Amino acid sequence: QGQEILVLNNLTTSQTFTNGNGSGDPMEGKIFSLDLKPDGFAEYLSNLSPGNYSFYSKNDPSIKGELTVLP
């Protein structure tokens, strides 16, 4: 909690790091959404409360996971 998160895109195509379970999720992108260039990275300062946050890439919805924030 309160730490910086480094998100790496080691693919050759642009991706996003977007909260939610995919297109149509009512919470999609309301907490975080970062654009990632090919072979690039983005920094995100997390002010999130402890918990689990689903994420996916808008560019490739098969890329998904869960961010766990600890106190």
Describe the model.
The chain has strands at 4-9, 15-19, 33-36, 40-45, 51-56, 64-69. The protein is globular, with a radius of gyration of 12 Å. It is mainly β. It is built from no helices and 6 strands.
Topology (elements, then pairings):
Blueprint: E1 4-9, E2 15-19, E3 33-36, E4 40-45, E5 51-56, E6 64-69
Antiparallel strand pairs: 1-4, 2-3, 2-5, 5-6
Rg over alpha carbons: 12 Å
Number of helices: 0
Shape: globular
Number of strands: 6
Overall structural class, as computed from helix and strand content, comes to mainly beta
- Helix content estimate: under 10%
Whole-number mean pLDDT? 94
Uncertain ranges: none
Strand content: over 45%
Q: Biggest β-sheet: count, sense, barrel?
A: 4 strands, antiparallel
Instruction: State the separation between the terminal residues, measured CA to CA.
Output: 5 Å
Strand order of the largest sheet: 3-2-5-6
| Element order: H for helix, E for strand | EEEEEE
List the keywords:
71 residues; four-stranded antiparallel β-sheet; two-stranded antiparallel sheet; 46% strand; globular
Brief overview:
The protein has 71 residues and is mainly β. Helix content is 0%, strand content 46%.
